[in-house]
Structures are given as C-alpha cells and as structure tokens.
Design a protein that fits this description.
Largest sheet: 10 strands, mixed
Helix content: 10-25%
Oligomer: single chain
Number of helices: 13
Length: 489
Amino acid sequence: MKAPAPLPNALLGFLLAALVPAQPVYIVHDDPAPMQALAAGYRQHGLNVRLEDQRVFRGTAESRPAQAIVMYVHGTLDPEVERRLIGYAERGGRLIVLHHGAASGKVAATRWLPFLGLEILPRGAPEHAWDVLRGECRLVNLNPSHYVTSHGVVYDRRIRYTPSDSPSSAQQLPAIVLPATEIFLNQLFTDGRRKTVLLGLNTTIGGKQYTQDRGGWLLPAGEGHVFYFQAGHQASDFEHPGYARILLNAVLWRPGSAVRSPIVAVDAFHNDEKETHYRWEGTDPGGFSSLAALLAGMGARTRSLRQRLTTQYLAGVDCLILAAPDTPAESGAPRYITNLEVQSLAAWVRNGGTLVLLGNNRGNAGFVHLNRLARRFGIRFAERTVGGAAADGRLKFDVAPSSPVFPRGGAFYAEDVVPLEIAGTARPLLQHNGEVIMAIAQFGRGTVFALGDPWIYNKYIDTEDNWLLASELFRYLLFESELRRSVWP
C-alpha cells in the first residue's frame, strides 16, 4: 500500500497548533472600537484574543500566561495596571504598546515613561516640545532585515526619506500610508542606543514636512521585550493590511530564532544580455535592483541562476522569475529553453515551486521556446501587443479590489504588453478590454504566474501603483501558499 504524501509544513503546523490551546493575547484598553479592529485581524490569523479594560485586567490573576499583552490606554494609567504591565515584561513577557500608550497623558504615571526609555516635554518647551498633528502619516521601514517589519508586509509605495538620526542621507524607502490620522512629535529617547528602531514616520502638514524615527521600536526589558508602535488613532489604522501584518509579526516574532526566508531566484542564463536587464544587481532602468529591495523588505532572499535549469539546480528555490529569454537579435548565441528544462521546471512546480513567467514584446523575447514552457501550464504568450494601449504602447488602467491577490486594487502601468491565451486549469488574474493581462495556474502543489511584460523593472516599478500591486502579488505567491491552494483548486 502506498504511503500517504506528507502534509505541507504550513498545514501541519496549523493542525498541530489547533490541537494545543494557544496562550491568549490580552488587549488592555479604554477605547473599544480601534482594539476590536485589531482583535479581528489577530483572530483571522488564529490568535486567541481577549479584550479587557483596566478594571477587568486589574481584577484578574497576575500570573496568567499570555502570548503577548497589548496596551492601548488613552486616559489615566491605573497604577496597579502600570505595575502589572511592567512586571509582565520584565519577567519575560511580550508587551506591545500602541499609540496613546506613550503619549503626554502618561507623564503622570510615575514609572511608565522611564520604563519605556522616553521623555515628553511640555508643549511650551523651548526645544523639542510635545505636539500632536492630524494628517496623513507615512510609516517608513527603517529596518528591512527585521522579521517584524518585513515578513509578509506589504508597503504602499516608496518615498524619499532622510532619517532624523543625523547626519543621514536621503533614500527611497517603503512606506505604509495612513490617511487623516493622529501623529505625535518629540517622543525623546532617554536610554541611549538600547532601542532597535523599526519604523520612521513622515508627514507633510500645512506645507511643512516632519520626519522622526519614532514610528516603531523594540526595547529589551528584563527577561522580556517591549514594542512600541505610534500609529493607531482610529479603527481604520488597524485595518490597513500592511500595518496589521506588522502588529501580527510583533506577536509572532521570537528573538534569536531562525526564520526561513523564501528564496526568489532570477534566471540569468536564458536572458544574458550585455546590459544588466532583469538582474538583481542591475541598477539601470531595465534592472531588477528595486524589485530585489521590495522582496528583501518582505523577508525574502534573492539568488541568480546562471546554469541550465534542472531539478537539482532548483533545489531550495521557492520562486523562479524567468523574464524575456534572449532572441538572436539580442544575443549572438541565445540559450534557448530546452525540452529537458521544460520537464525539470514542470516537476519542480508540481512539487511546490512558484514560477513567474514575464514575457516581452515581439523582438525582445524568444516566444517559441518560452511558449513551449508556458503551454505546459495552459498559458500562451500571443505575439502581438494588447489592444486598447496608447499609440506609444503605454497601458494604464485601474485594477478593481479583488481578493486574495489584489485586495486594495490600484493603477496598473506597463508598456508594449503581450496578451495571454489560456486553457486548462489556467485562469485570468487580470483582464483589460476582454484580454488576459495576467494569468495564474495551479499545477500540482505549485503555482505558475504569467504576464506579457517584465513590468516591474526599475524604470516603472514606482509608476502609478506598480509598487503596491507587485508587493501584493509576491505577498500572495510567497506567503499565502495554503490560501492559494484553497482558492485555486
């Protein structure tokens, strides 16, 4: 009798977790609506969440086990609650302080701000006076190598940001955008370099720009840890999928534990032009250096494959991007995709690999051999430009919000896009004027995605909402594998 196939690791972990009661995440608050939004997001990921006001929290057993405690107290902090929260963290707990939990209302709490390593000066102080602003808050990822800010987090766009820890140089950094919320200025650090800064904040109000590296940080406390995240004045802030994921990661993070990062490889063998087109190291307009930064900011690692593709060579790769294989016009000796490689790639996908096929317009992609591979999964790149584009080949249209891949939608932009023809189990993921722009196919345990353009190379990744759409796409392909199997049977 044939032995049953082993369960995928993610599914096995889910089933084991279901058999072992999880320790609760307690949310201590005095404002229910925002915390109900946070709790709903936590519960969607299987966390056992209990909301308690200060009176209830104070009246329960102090030694209750907890996976984490979230503190969201806007008004006066009860001295007994203050003592318990500090003690919980110092005994090895995970304390997550949100927004008002480190605002001016906590100055009267005798131990709280010193415990957090903060000082808040009066509004009338001659320098670094406390202030509260209302407007668009941009949370900027200042620590992309950290699990909390990276693992599966989708950032809305990149912005130009100069860290306030001067002297610093301006950089293009990923940002989450929270509209019309509350922003605090001048939470002064008093503990030197003990904190690990995770997020910065940036806003422009009344024509003046404010930038401070105070959007989120991590502090060791005795045997435990304290997180602080400044955003969160209203329920909609906690419903933002990127910010909600950061707050989930703060619960799940384990100091010192090894976290496996998905490996995304780019095929540098079949596209081997003189220019660094579609290469991670390519900083020219045709390069993928910005895409590499996007993936690193989501917790993935990148690799380049420079040999023919075999199952052995693909071992350890979670996702392979195969973009615009060379033509004779681009290379004196183009390396065509062989039948043996098609068989190897099919076997790799069937066993759980994710293949991303990016075509190009006629003359810039070897369609014959690319289609020999794509047809294995029910996809064909048509050798023409999609209808409805501008005379110069520009294609721009709004993507309607649709779960699970593009839950927020956005404006798509590309040039000289080749439409797709699909059959079998392949399904359209994005269509425009009746033509398939993106397609996805489930093949065994793996997935194939196709688009008739390299799309997210450096020149266009920041055009319209391409950064957001690409982030959502790779969030889905890399981090939602079990969901993917349930949506695309």
